[in-house]
Amino acid sequence: MRRSATAYWTGFCIILALLIVAPLVLPEFWRRFVTEILIWGLLAMSSDILIGYTGIISFGHSVFFGLAGAAAVATFVALFATRLREIYFSITTLVFSQIFYVVIFTWTEVTGGENGLAFSQPLLSIPGIWSARFTPVTLHWFVLAVVTISFLMLRRVTQSPFGMVLQAIRENEPRARAIGYSIERYKIVAVMLSGIFAGLAGVLYAIQNKFAAPDFVFFLVSGEVVIFNVMGGVGTLVGPLAGAAFFLLLREGFSRYFTEYYLIPVGIIFTAMVIFMPQGLLGFAKRWLNQ
Amino acid sequence: MAIPLEQILIQTINGIVNGMILALVASGLTLIFGIMDVVNFAHGDLVMLGGFVGAITIAATGNFWLALLVAAVVIAVFGAVLQATTLRPLIGRDPLTTILATFGISLVLQKYAIWQWGPSARRIQEPITGNFSLFYLQYPWYRLLTAVLAAAIIGALYLFLRYGKYGIWIRATTQDRVMAQAMGIPVPLVHTTVFAIGAGMAAASGVLFGPLGGVTQNIGLDFTLRAFIVVVVGGMGNLGGSILASIFISLLEAYAALIVSPAQAVIVSFIALILTLLFRPTGLFVPTPK
After folding, report:
1. Tens place of pLDDT for every residue, chain A, 291 residues?
2. Is the dihedral of CA A59, A61, A66, A68 positive or negative?
3. Contact residues, chain B, for A267 at CB < 8 Å
4. Residue A228 lies inside a defined structural domain of this protein
5. Which among A91, A95, A263 is the nearest to B107, CB-wise?
6. What's the angle, vertex CA A241, arms to CA B220 and CA A34, rounded to 5?
């Protein structure tokens, strides 16, 4: 047990070090690519709280990603959706994402409608003391710092008694209820937590692209988040991050041959993984290493 | 703001017609859910595929009825293959995995359709072109025919489930899978057949919908979403409830379209769904459980 913890933190430090060095050595295209993986990875980790730890699939995660006021929206959605059983939860979150999509799409005065909103990149600053423009390298470090801190926080949360209760809900909801936990409250907090970090990822994405569009809220983004989770391995936090990297690499590779139809092969791989590799890449790798 | 009575009547008819097409989609979905706990996220995409197959058949033969039949049969066979290859391995696992698997299928089908047939809408020529006058409008007979056809298909399904030998097998499997197996019913075969029937019905609604709205590759998500709303509002796995809920939801949307834009009218049905889930999660159109 002790040894595996040491190995874990060694691995963590090595990967972190690689990611810090990455922007200095990689060419422009791949630098941007790695930054993007980190942002999507944060989004994937945030939804892992729901899929992997609480056992409920959110098909509306794009809402939190696309809206800056994610915490407020998450609370609102959570109040409705957490009373529901698994399948209903998925459908309701999907419906909420469609509602917000319609609202944003038709409310053009505020949101810019289909065109979205372009804005100038904010400055990287400590208020009143120091400020500088984002360069691709500092942006990468900034994103890396936010994602790393978020990861550590999420990891702490999932290992706390609160996280244990969430896992108990996933394993056996009636029993967790019978022991006396207020399932609804735990689920609401889980959705809020997840929403906050998803919102954070959305903000990072908007800073990177200097752009916010209704497509952020669209169903497809939520779907991709679910794909990241399943590909990487749910309930591991690291897995979804790896899944995001895997998905983006697949997309990069397949778009060479399939152009915008890369989702055909990727979708087939995803479906096959659901059937044959339900633990995802990480679970598969673990089993392979243990042999 | 006063809304003229004629408009309300016209929207009532529109709502019922749309509701019957939706009922055809939703009854397949609810049948599949009822029998194998599969939440079929790709159901709307089967509607879309059916529409395309129908459009191609019409382009080749010019016969609407043949197209309806061909689309239903082709997509039913396709559905059976889909079920046997992707859903059968998932039996006995968490129902959530079926959401994921069918979601993957849905992505592939959508992208395949746009790759194969391009983004432009295909219109299916209606088999009868006559109109009758309804107040100030020339109302096409075809719309009424759609509602009748949809009702006929659903009626045939009901009779089949009620009296047919295989229909009784299906109902037995829905009630108790293990017991049905013990009585010698080939349960895996029943599952595949039900999925095929559901897929065929979805395809038929795609062809029926073709002349009204045109077939594009993105009608799938819209149909999936609506069908889900209807199935939940009507009570999961409850055939009669789904039909009533289809008409109820379509009427709500039709009336809402009088006041707000059609894009925003969709929100009304979302709100109906959320209210249902909050206050009566077993469904609006089922007897109160005792």
Report:
1. 456 778 778 888 888 888 888 777 778 778 888 888 888 888 888 888 888 787 777 777 777 776 655 556 666 777 666 666 667 777 777 777 777 777 776 666 655 555 556 665 665 655 555 566 667 778 888 888 888 999 999 888 888 999 889 888 888 888 988 988 888 888 888 888 888 888 888 888 877 777 666 666 666 777 888 888 888 888 888 888 888 888 888 888 888 887 778 888 888 988 888 888 888 888 787 777 776
2. positive
3. 104-105, 107-108, 111
4. no
5. A263
6. 100
Asked, for residue B286, whether it belongs to a domain, the answer is no
Q: Centre a 10 Å sphere on the Cβ of residue B38 and count the other Cβ atoms it contains.
A: 25
Q: Is residue A270 part of a domain?
A: no
Total number of domains constituting chain B: 1
Residue B289 forms part of a structural domain: no
**Residue-wise burial string across A57-83, b where 16 or more C-beta atoms lie within 10 A, e elsewhere:** bbbbbbbbbbbeebbebbebbbebbbb
Amino acid (one-letter) located at A84: L
What range does the domain containing B237 cover? 5-279
Q: Tell whether B116 lies on the interface with A, counting CB pairs under 8 A.
A: no
A261/B115 CB distance under 8 A:
yes
Total domains present in chain A:
1
Task: Report the Cα A240 to chain-centroid distance in Å.
Answer: 7
- CATH of residue B87's domain is 1.10.3470
Residue A256 lies in a domain: no
Residue B72 maps to a domain: yes
Checking ipTM against 0.85, whether it exceeds it is: no
Q: How distant, in Å, are the alpha carbons of A4, A202, B80, B264 from that of A150?
A: 22, 14, 45, 37
The answer to whether residue A114 is domain-embedded is yes
* Domain coverage including residue A78: 2-220
Question: A263, A266, A269: best mutation site toward chain B, by most B Cβ within 10 Å?
Answer: A263
Nearest-neighbour CA in chain A from B281: distance (Å): 8
Look at residue B135 and tell me if it is in a domain.
yes
